[in-house]
Design brief:
heterodimer; A: 329 residues; Rossmann fold; 15 strands; B: Rossmann fold; nine-stranded mixed beta sheet; two-stranded antiparallel sheet; binds flavin-adenine dinucleotide; binds adenosine monophosphate
Chain lengths: 329, 265
């Protein structure tokens, strides 16, 4: 039976990294269309929730390649281990939740195996027996539809904001199998000298985010963004231009090439709503826009909006949010 | 030493954005490219930043020549811009990117690199702003058997080793690897320099070395795409925004209570 494999590695606070459920959801649809079985492949550690999650998503099997170098997320080891797994079991499709690390590992694997690859995938289906893949392009302004040639393995990077995670109609009881990989002959060519260490909570995990953009007008007004974020119990984010101009650190950037967030509340202040910014916040449950231009694109994405000068509105919002917090409002 | 910088000509993403926001972005008869002809073409922003990284390395004393290569139908303008900025060689590999996938692009780039001379460092953008794939540099690294370092904000050479600061979701990471290597550059490296007027005028006469598939020993069949762009669609945006009116203080209070009522705060 053909296989559709969703691969994952690295623990995110003891659990699977974000996006695996979305990749399993897309993978299940594809497996059904292909008459294939869905498999979850964990490299390195097996997170405690992996098997239950695979079961909920209708996977037929959970496989694990155990190796400390895989658990440590070494890219050369990951690419080689995946290449060995793919050569041994020849999946029809290999899916990655498109995390930061996957953006490096997936294309290198494609290069090694000569496999077709599409990133930013929002959908995959069969048309006249051919694998057809829809991906986001131009930051999300368009959808690019690719036809994948041949019957060999395709590698897909699943955009975790363009797919809604959904459990299978009926759960499975996937058995766990260990798979062997041989990594002794694989040197790690890139050496980490200084590891990134998250300073404080991450935008990815935030329930509430208040972001400021060029419409703030001046660097000093970013303090209002920070104050509103604090008053709402959230984190402060930013659009790219004010990062480029050095108003705030790059670690605040939300968007296609910044943090991909999914808060319950996202407040965009002085941000026009370009697709590349929305790629990092469109998964927010409730989006609020504050912008002086009633025609700004951000209002097409927002649930609530205030048209006006953010420098006048922000102090009032901070006050109202603080009052509410202290039980006064 | 020789640095190779790979640059792609793309449609101005801001202009595409403006058309999209105005609901006026249309796909032409071929089903996959825009019908608007007025969209300017320019060097992919991250590629300009990759070139900036090469120039900074040379400014810092690396004894290197800089070769800039682009696969396209007519990338002379962006190549002249590269020459004005200080590229020593500019090369145009003559093929239409619309008919290539990442493997085809990679086959051409690596064939040109092998033919034109050794590359100690290959610099690319982190992704092209049209397809947003971010795949070609990794394929190039695999084809050339080189290590790959992605999403750089700073690239330095120290005693022949490469030291790169990467932008990760958790903050900066510093890595080291040996040359030759492939590095992709991100916007965090900073706004690229602009050529002086004198160099711009000088570069007007610069002629890219035009390289054909035959010269690279590649037959069109070798480039048959494994993932072919067959259609492009423009999704429609249906706004349902509830605008909250009033004075700043009225609208702020109203918004906070609406959010509270919806359980958003
Ligand atoms: C490949 C690529 C990747 C990118 N990645 C990202 C990314 O990761 N993140 C990102 O954010 N961008 C990214 N961009 C840039 C993106 O395309 C936009 O240029 C950017 O998001 C615009 O930022 P902005 O909305 O702050 O600024 P602008 O577009 O300049 O908008 C400013 C807004 O502020 C409003 N305004 C002005 N004055 C006031 C006022 N007094 N009160 C209230 N509102 C006011 C204006 O009406 C306007 O809508 C990327 C671009 C490319 C090409
Ligand atoms: N047609 C091309 N010519 C030269 N370089 C390219 C071309 N296409 C892609 N590249 C390089 O590969 C990077 C990533 O492209 P992509 O994988 O298409 O997102 C770009 O930023 C360029 O550095």
């Amino acid at each position: 039976m053909p296989r559709v494999v969703v691969c994952t590695w690295g623990l995110d606070r003891g659990a699977l990294p974000p996006g695996v459920e979305e990749a399993l959801t897309l993978g299940r649809g594809l497996a059904e269309a292909l008459g294939a079985e869905l498999v979850l492949l964990a490299l390195g550690d097996l997170p405690a929730d992996a098997q239950a999650l695979a079961a909920r998503h209708g996977a037929r099997a959970v496989e694990r390649a155990a190796d400390p170098r895989l658990a440590a997320g070494e890219p050369d080891a990951l690419v080689e281990a995946l290449a060995q797994c793919c050569r041994a079991s020849a999946p029809r499709a290999l899916l990655f939740a498109q995390t930061f690390d996957a953006r490096l590992v997936a294309p290198r694997l494609a290069g090694r195996l000569g496999a077709p690859i599409v990133m930013n995938v929002a959908d995959a289906s069969l048309e006249n027996g051919r694998l057809v893949v829809t991906a986001l392009a131009y930051g999300g302004d368009t959808r690019a539809v690719y036809e994948v040639a041949g019957e060999g393995m395709a590698i897909l990077g699943v955009s975790t904001t363009a797919v809604r995670a959904q459990s299978a109609a009926s759960a499975t009881t996937p058995p766990l199998t260990e798979v062997a990989v041989q990594l002794d002959a694989v040197p790690e060519r890139v050496r980490i000298v200084a590891r990134a260490e998250a300073k404080g909570p991450r935008l990815e995990d935030a329930g509430i985010i208040v972001s400021g953009g060029r419409g703030l007008g001046a660097r000093e007004h970013y303090a209002l963004i920070e104050q509103l974020a604090e008053a709402l119990g959230g984190l402060a984010g930013a659009s790219r231009p004010i990062v480029d101009d050095g108003w705030v650190d790059a670690s605040r950037q939300v968007g296609l090439t910044g943090h991909i967030t999914r808060p319950s509340l996202y407040v965009a202040v002085g941000i026009s709503g370009a697709s590349q910014h929305m790629a990092g916040c469109s998964a927010a449950k409730t989006l609020v826009a504050i912008n002086s231009d009633a025609d700004a694109a951000i209002f097409k994405h927002a649930r609530f909006g205030i048209v006006g000068d953010c420098k006048q509105i922000l102090p009032e919002l901070i006050r109202a949010a603080r009052e509410r917090r202290s039980g006064g409002g | 030493m020789r640095f190779v910088v790979c640059v792609k000509e793309v449609l101005d993403p801001d202009a595409v954005n403006s058309f999209a926001v105005a609901g006026r972005l249309r796909i032409g008869d071929d089903g996959r490219s825009f019908s608007q002809t007025a969209i300017p073409r320019l060097m992919n922003g991250f590629d300009e930043q990759a070139l900036e990284a090469a120039l900074r390395l040379r400014d810092a004393g690396a004894p290197a020549t800089i070769a800039v290569v682009s696969i396209g139908t007519d990338p002379a303008n962006i190549l002249r811009h590269a020459a004005a900025l200080g590229a020593d060689e500019i090369a145009h590999v003559d093929a239409d990117p619309a008919g290539l996938d990442a493997h085809g692009t990679t086959a051409l780039l690596t064939a040109w690199i092998r033919k034109s001379g050794p590359a100690d460092l290959v610099l690319c953008g982190r992704q092209a702003s049209d397809d947003d794939q971010g795949v070609v540099p990794a394929l190039v690294a695999e084809q050339l058997g080189m290590p790959l370092v992605t999403i750089a904000r700073e690239v330095m050479l120290e005693a022949g080793a490469l030291r790169v600061t990467r932008v990760t979701p958790d903050g900066d990471e510093i890595v080291e690897t040996s040359l030759p290597a492939v590095v992709t550059v991100s916007s965090e490296i900073g706004i690229p320099r602009y050529p002086t007027a004198a160099r711009k005028i000088q570069a007007r006469r610069a002629k890219p070395d035009v390289v054909t598939l035959e010269a690279l020993g590649i037959a069109p069949a070798d480039l048959a795409p494994r993932a072919l762009l067959v259609r492009q669609l423009v999704p429609e945006l249906h706004g349902h925004c509830e605008l909250i009116d009033g004075s700043p203080s009225e609208s702020a209070r109203a918004l906070v209570s609406r959010l509270a009522a919806e359980g958003a705060i």
